[in-house]
Amino acid sequence: MQVPHWSFSAPTKTCVHAFLEKQIAEPFSYREIEATRGHPPRGYDYDDSEVQLGEGKAVYDRAVEALFAWQMFPPAWTRILTAETGQIHPGLNLVVQARASGLWWLNACRVVYLVDEQNPVRRRGFAYGTLPAHLEQGEELFTIEQWADGTVWYRVQAFSRPRCWAARAGKPLVRHWQRKFVRDSQATILQAVRTPE
Predict the structure, then answer these.
(1) Residue 162 and residue 168: Cα distance in Å, rounded?
(2) What is the DSSP code (8-state) at residue 167?
(3) pLDDT at 169
(4) Cβ atoms of residues 134 and 109 within 8 Å
(5) In total, how many domains does the chain have?
């Protein structure tokens, strides 16, 4: 079984690129691909969180721009590196770097699908799923939604379960960091929307 890369110091770009290169030809590490579109599959932990960002078209547009620039990732302890530049699209491979408990972890993912809907809720976003070199297996969906009353929301939905021994042995800690990610992600995108460049 492949395992995510970890180290006591931030990995170099060369290391990250080499790690990602090995994952490009790999399949997803779970069977329930695109299951974030509907009901969560059995056997996984499920999370669904949202926070209001404001209201109106300008807020919605800024939030969508921030989302598609990966600005929902808290820069204090996460980083994103994609296999190619340009717009987010299905099939895009990426590395999520996370610094947790004194270690840097590299986790490989791939964008599964995009969301662009007008009814019943105006919604933009994307989902990515895990590749073999990831602590967990599952899928995460990030969306910006504008409801009928004009309010704008950032929503994160995910189903996941431990894939490697470290995640299984430390599941309570992993769940702690997953919840922390959601809280910090909400705060990060709120800041991005409220202070546009």
Answers:
(1) 5
(2) H
(3) 58
(4) yes
(5) 1
Q: Tell me the residue type at 120.
A: P
Burial of 54 (0-12, 13-18, 19+ CB in 10 A): middle
pLDDT over 80 (residue 36): yes
Q: In the numeric block, which tokens belong to residue 180?
A: 């922390």
> Is pLDDT at 137 greater than 80 in this prediction?
yes
Q: Does the pLDDT of residue 172 top 90, yes or no?
A: no
pLDDT for 192? 93
Cα 186 to Cα 197: distance, rounded to the nearest angstrom: 18
Residue in the block written with tokens 């079984």: 1
Tell which residue, 118, 136, 138, has the closest CA to residue 128. Answer: 138
Q: What is the CATH number of the domain that holds 106?
A: 3.30.530.20
Give 157's contacts (C-beta < 8 A, 6+ positions apart). Answer: 36, 46, 47, 48, 140, 141, 143
Residues spanned by the domain of 186: 5-194
Phi, psi values for residue 44, rounded to 5°: -125, 155
Q: Write the pLDDT tens digit of every residue in 64-110.
A: 999 999 999 999 999 999 999 999 999 999 999 988 778 888 999 99
The continuous run of DSSP H or E covering 67 comes out as helix 57-67
* 3-state secondary structure (DSSP) of residue 161: strand
